């Protein structure tokens, strides 16, 4: 009977070791996945911020160009350009 108890105890211990190793591996895998996800999110945010800054710079340059062009045009030409190109939505 003691040999049977020893064998069952060894099998139980072995099963617990396997389950513990599986749990530890799962936990480490989850940590790696979370770290990878955090890095990806940070990279995505950085790319979005960079794109927004580039768009803002482009818009600012275009606005400056338009302002410079308008300041060099006679008033009549400015009025004509605005009448020709700017319309309210729904109007002809």
From TrEMBL:
Residues 29-44, 52-61, 80-92 have a biased composition (Basic and acidic residues). Residues 62-71 have a biased composition (Polar residues). Residues 29-92 are annotated as: Disordered. It comes from the Bacteria. This is Uncharacterized protein.
């Amino acid at each position: 009977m003691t040999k049977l108890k020893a064998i069952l105890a060894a099998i139980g211990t072995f099963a617990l070791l396997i389950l513990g190793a599986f749990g530890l591996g799962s936990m480490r895998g989850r940590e790696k996945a979370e770290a990878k996800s955090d890095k990806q999110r940070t990279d995505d945010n950085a790319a979005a911020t960079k794109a927004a800054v580039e768009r803002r710079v482009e818009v600012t340059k275009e606005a400056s160009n338009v302002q410079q062009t308008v300041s060099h045009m006679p008033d009549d030409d400015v009025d004509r350009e605005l009448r020709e190109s700017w319309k309210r939505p729904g109007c002809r």
